[in-house]
Write a structure and sequence with these properties.
It is a single chain. By secondary structure, the chain is an alpha+beta fold. Among the domains are: about 110 residues, no CATH class; about 160 residues, Heat Shock Protein 90 (2-Layer Sandwich). The chain has 12 helices and 7 strands. The protein has a 5-stranded mixed sheet, with helices on one face. Strands 1-3 form a two-stranded antiparallel ribbon. Helix 6 runs antiparallel to helix 7. It is elongated. The N and C termini lie far apart (about 95 Å).
Length: about 400
């Protein structure tokens, strides 16, 4: 009768609703109760299983430990799947201990079971408790590792975002500075050529030199900013020996004792323009650290492991051992050449390293203070079949 009254009340409520609201689907109370019960179905099934085994322990003493062990094994199994919180777990263990221990205690008093059987109850309970402790300890350790991994991932994502912002800033700044620098440099050169006053011409030359220096700086910043982009390289088979000979021809007019070292025919798979820029940076570095009477030697040779080595050696000032670890950092210069004129921008060697690594190669240096330096750019060689 109560259910019928409830149904009539629901129908009256629906009839009183507006037309738009009548289309709302009302879930029957029985379905709501089933949805609440469904997640607890394994627990309820286990409770029923325990009750049946307790009845078997009480009514069938001849079965001895079979129902008792079935209860504790099932408790271990369902805990492994459900992982109850610590308070429900302890309460469940206490309840099972009292229930099984109580039945066995009564059977011992009646002489149906041996007294040794009763000692198994606390031992099994203790084993289950130890298993729970180990399980929760490993679960806590796993959660700590997951939390640490999430923290590391957040930090990595933030670092990537900052690096991308830095790269984008360098690209935007270089692009925005390029046009006004070019315009100003053109006007300064016109002033220098048209000036009749020597003082004005000298000032114009200073401006021209500084603007040219600034343009080189922006170009190098733009190159470094684009080093990590997918279109940084346009690879084709490149003759490494031709690159070295062309570089020697470009730089041979500077007053140094130029020498051609070992030049072996070798082909690399790379970007010709980028490799030229890297060689020019090495040559410029050698010129900056030498005097007119010093020797600069360039060469190319194959190396074991399928690599090609492009080497630039000079007999200049060399690099102190304490400076070798930092010379490939951006804007870093070796101690004897930190002055503005001789030290450059501190971007040449980072450009060489970025280009070499983009080609899946590397850069290495051998230097002794006062005895010169040897820079070697190692680039993977092209197999003979592809080169031909």
């Amino acid at each position: 009768m109560r259910t019928q009254d409830h149904g009539r009340e629901v129908r009256r409520t629906v009839a009183a609703l507006p037309g738009a609201a009548r289309g709302i689907h009302l879930v029957p109370p029985l379905r709501i109760n089933m949805q609440r019960i469904r997640p607890l179905a394994p627990d309820l099934a286990w409770v029923l299983f325990v009750v049946l085994n307790l009845v078997a322990m009480r009514l069938l003493p001849a079965w001895q430990t079979v129902p008792f062990l079935a209860i504790w094994v099932s408790l271990t199994v369902i805990y492994g799947f459900r992982l109850w919180r610590i308070q429900p777990t302890i309460l469940t263990m206490v309840a099972v201990t009292l229930a099984t221990g109580g039945i066995i205690f009564v059977q011992v008093l009646k002489g149906q079971q041996d007294a040794d059987y009763l000692a198994e109850v606390p031992l099994i309970a203790l084993m289950f408790l130890v298993m729970v402790w180990h399980g929760r300890r490993r679960l806590a350790a796993t959660q700590e590792r997951l939390t640490a991994m999430e923290q590391v991932q957040r930090i990595s994502q933030e670092n990537l975002r900052l690096l991308e912002q830095q790269r984008q800033f360098l690209q935007d700044a270089s692009h925005e500075l390029g046009t006004p620098i070019t315009v100003a440099l053109g006007h300064a050169e016109l002033i220098e050529r048209a000036a009749t006053d020597q003082a004005v011409a000298a000032d114009a030359r200073v401006v021209t030199g500084e603007l040219a220096r600034l343009r080189r700086l922006t170009n190098r910043l733009l190159l470094l900013a684009s080093a990590g982009t997918p279109d940084f390289l346009h690879v084709t088979p490149v003759s490494a020996d031709s690159l070295v000979l062309d570089a020697l021809e470009r730089w041979g007019n500077i007053p140094r004792r130029w020498r051609l070292g070992e030049v072996a025919e070798a082909t690399v798979l790379g970007d010709s323009d980028r490799l030229v820029a890297a060689l020019d940076a090495l040559m410029e570095n050698a010129v900056a650290h030498t005097e007119p009477g010093d020797t600069i030697e360039v060469g190319v040779r194959p190396e074991s492991g399928g690599n090609v080595v492009l080497a630039v050696r000079d007999s200049g000032s060399g690099i102190p051992p304490t400076e070798l670890d930092r010379i490939f950092r951006r804007f870093a210069r070796a101690q004897p050449n930190r002055n503005r004129e001789a030290g450059g921008f501190g971007l040449g060697l980072p450009i060489v390293q970025a280009i070499a690594e983009a080609h899946h190669g590397s850069v290495r240096v051998h230097s002794t203070a006062g005895q010169g330096s040897t820079f070697e750019m190692v680039i993977p060689a092209v197999p003979d079949a592809l080169a031909s």
